[in-house]
Amino acid sequence: MSPLIIAVLFVSLTIVSTVIYLMYLYFEYGWPYTGPDINSWSIGIYTGTSPFDLQPPQGVSNPVLTAHDISDTQASFIADPFMIKEGLVWYMFFEVMRLKEDRGDIGMAISEDGLKWQYKQIVLSESFHLSYPYVFKWNNEFYMIPESKGGDSVRLYKANNFPTGWSYQATLLEGKFIDNSIFYYKARWWMLTSNPKKTLRLFFADGLLGPWTEHPKSPIYKKDPFRGRMGGRVIMYNDHLIRFAQDINFVYGNKVRAFEITQLNTTEFEEILVQKRPALRRSGKGWNRIGMHHIDPHQIDGNIWIASVDGFGC
What we know:
The chain is mostly beta strands. The chain folds into two domains: 1-33; 34-312, Tachylectin-2, Chain A (5 Propeller), CATH 2.115.10.20. The chain contains one helix and 21 strands. The chain has one helix at 3-29, and strands at residues 42-50, 53-55, 75-86, 89-98, 104-111, 118-124, 131-138, 141-147, 153-161, 165-174, 178-185, 188-195, 199-205, 213-214, 235-237, 240-247, 255-264, 269-273, 280-281, 291-301, 304-312. The longest helix has 27 residues, at 3-29. Mean pLDDT is 90; it is low at 19-27 and 29-38.
């Protein structure tokens, strides 16, 4: 085959693939599609009978929090909400992207019912970007592991005055990691995290402060836009270990899928897709028209679940 024919075939395939991609964007997201508008990221609340079947609850007008609610700094968007309940009060921690500095801080809001939220203040700020504030309670103490890849590390913070006062405790891992998701399972600590290239990695430790060891099966996935980036809290559901992953095929923030971890020990890791239908996906209109990429579900009463989610629209 002559070089000219090869060149023509290459150009033709490139044109066809481009047309197919543009048609996908047209039918999925409308036209013209210019990508997600960062100013439109906001936070909503979903409820349902399982963490895989969640919908906007009646009587709640999503989004429940937007950048306009941030009163102590100018924000371009808010995202990555994590909740925790203490006593009768729900606390939500989330990324607040500063408008002028292009750097994220961690903000906090409160709610008495988990449905109506009141923004309070920025509770954690560093010289580098923070997001994905994975908050949890252990031995009657509150901890947070925000994404801090700008600081080239995974950092653990402890509340010295919950919910507003947080202090640095330890560096758990060195390197650029994103969406760090920690959980305690079968007498060990585990952490699923990713690098910026959508490669999912797994670490474990006997104690919260480490030392942390990379799992022999890690990286679990390499450059995988379907499963390679975490999308929220790891939970137990009917004695099954569930993780959520961002599906960022074609478009960032496309949807969230649920996976059941069927085998996990210091030598093995296996998981299966819970269902073909995403746990979260865009609504096609309004505040989450273009996509959703984060979920933090909590069981509140029997088979009733509540989750903080985020989404964006243009």
